[in-house]
Amino acid sequence: MAILEVENVHTYYGHIHALKGLSLTVEQGEIVTLIGANGAGKTTTLNTISGLLRPREGRIRLRGEDLTTIPPHEIVARGVVQVPEGRRVFARLTVQENLEMGAYVQKDSRRVREGIERVFTLFPRLKERRQQLAGTLSGGEQQMLAMGRALMAQPKVLLLDEPSMGLAPVLVDSIFATIKRLNDDGATILLVEQNARMALQIAHRGYVLQTGEVVLSDTGENLRQNEMVRKAYLGIQ
Amino acid sequence: MYTSLTEKLIDWSIALYLWGFRIIVVLIVVIGTVLTLIGGKYNSQQWIDFVVFGIAQGSIYALIALGYTMVYGILRMINFAHGEIFMSGAFSAYFVASALEQSGFLDQNPLVALVLIMLVAMAASTGIALLVERVAYRPLRQAPRLVPLISAIGASFFLQYTFRGLFGPGVYAYPVVELLQGEWTFFGINILKAQVVVTIAAVLMMLGLYTIVMRTKIGKAMRAVSEDKATAALMGINVDRVIVTTFALGAAMAGVAGVLYALVFRQVNFFMGFVPGIKAFTSAVLGGVGNIPGAMLGGLFLGIFESLGPALFLESLGIVAPYQLKDAIAFTMLVLVLIFRPSGILGEKLTAKKA
Ligand SMILES: Nc1ncnc2c1ncn2[C@@H]1O[C@H](COP(=O)(O)OP(=O)(O)OP(=O)(O)O)[C@@H](O)[C@H]1O
Ligand SMILES: [Mg+2]
């Protein structure tokens, strides 16, 4: 059974029909990527899974348990954690405090400290900056912090919304390397990207989204060879 | 382009008007102060009395102002019922205080009794604030900003007239606490005991609150929610619970402020929350709404300024009843700050961040 199942979901913004019967699954240990143009509905999909948006129809299940009517903070407690688009670190909290907020559902303070140490091992830069206000970090550092903060909740499924957005090419490489490494260590990841080339290189499977609908789904390898994907998303004629 | 000349004229006249306003205010303060100091009507003990009273009064404003500023920080909404939350605390505590007085407990164990009275006031204020939040604000959280504001004014009237209906329009005299009567003398300066105790109690509460906001898990969550509710929810923070906690903490401060106010002025009444409420709101605006240390400093500043003002610069200008103008000073200050520095005296430039 898939760890995360999204089944026939319809999400609206007022009268705007943003997701039109979207379905996807993520298996334990996979990296699944969701690619699509601006406005295709990628962020809407993640926010619907996280409970920030409520679908008018359809179901979302984690290991068979229905998440559709559960409030966002309890979805986090069940292990589905999102790194939002544009990083959204708490600018006026320190790096350390941001990480503590990521572990909000963790009651045991010793586990929180261990979690912080693990994040610092993964991103040593954050350790040097631990007492600094997050708003003063560079874009790359903020992305590390946003990912570290999400990892603090010990997610069963990690949702990443355009982690490479606005970063210099070297940083993009290192963010993707980190995602790959997290997955090698056992993390299950649903990755939203505009950078389809990089995403399809590390993803086991992928879905192509157009105006709120899945138009194609296949393995990462097959999608990279696909004519339509090559034209529309990889810029190859 | 044909409107450009009229537009310029309008701009110039507005600028001229604003500058005139500033100059007049500065002239009043400066000339009045100089005349007073030359006249030498007050001796140094009297000046000290004004300042000490101002500090005591100001620390009460500061305590109330915290509730305005914290709720604004989290919901971007002015809780106009907050003055009535303060009144509810003082009023409920009145009944406990007079019962304790009649049983003689207040005289035997004044400290224990005072703590008890404050706990009752905190509980009453908090309970009522949570009710108001649940009934009047939470259902309107997605509504346009004006709607909860109107609801807040409604809640404010509701509370005033509930107390009026239950306990009548009259004034109830607060029991006298013997312990707080008289003066202490420090280095030859006499200071009223009640004012020292009020100031110390208020400062302790503020330090406690500041520690909660800066150091505890719930305090950090409050700061996170005030920056970005959606992301806070994505971190597993129960946003509703954090909002409720914010209202509760602000209300508890207002409850304590109510008791302290009653200790200084020795009376309660259904309408007593109105003026201190607006003064505290002014303090919060002075310090930059949403800014916690700002609200504390704003309260102190306003308290001292309005206590000194009548004697310092109004009386010598030939104003007949300068002490009646205390409230006018506070409201003039509110208008001045709103015109010239809406982000407050300590205020950061919020525009970029909040946009
Ligand atoms: N808050 C909103 N109110 C109304 N419509 C919205 C809102 N957010 C998104 N939409 C609309 O829903 C559709 C899907 O938007 P969404 O943000 O999910 O796209 P996306 O695939 O994440 O795009 P991007 O790559 O630009 O992040 C778009 O047509 C968008 O205009
Ligand atoms: Mg998006």
N to C succession of SSEs of chain A: EEEHEEHEHHHHEHEHEEHH
| Bound ligand species | adenosine-5'-triphosphate, magnesium ion
The number of helical segments of chain A is 10
The termini of chain A sit apart by 38 Å
Number of distinct beta strands of chain A: 10
CATH topology of chain B: ABC transporter involved in vitamin B12 uptake, BtuC
Percent strand of chain B equals: under 5%
The computed structural class of chain A is alpha/beta
Overall 3D shape of chain A: globular
Largest interface, Cβ cutoff 8 Å: A-B, 24 and 18 residues
What would the principal axes of the Cα set say about the shape of chain B? globular
- Give the end-to-end Cα distance of chain B, rounded to a whole number of Å: 30 Å
Oligomer: heterodimer
H and E order of chain B: HHHHHHEEEHHHHEHHHH
Number of domains of chain B: 1
Strand order of the largest sheet of chain A: 6-7-8-3-9-10
Using the coordinates above, name the CATH class of chain B: Mainly Alpha
Overall description:
The complex is a heterodimer of chains A (237) and B (355). With 237 residues, chain A is an alpha/beta fold. Chain A has 10 helices and 10 strands. Chain A has a 6-stranded mixed sheet with strand order 6-7-8-3-9-10, sandwiched between helices. In chain A, strands 2-1-4-5 form a 4-stranded antiparallel sheet, with helices on one face. In chain A, helix 3 packs parallel to helix 6. Chain A is globular and about 45 Å long. The N and C termini of chain A lie far apart (38 Å). Chain B has 355 residues and is mostly helical. Chain B is built from 14 helices and 4 strands. Chain B has helices at residues 4-39, 44-75, 82-102, 105-108, 110-137, 146-167, 193-215, 217-227, 229-234, 239-265, 274-286, 292-314, 326-340, 351-354, and strands spanning 172-173, 183-186, 189-192, 267-268. The radius of gyration of chain B is 22 Å and the shape is globular. Chain B starts with a helix and ends with a helix. Residues 349-355 of chain B have low confidence and may be disordered.
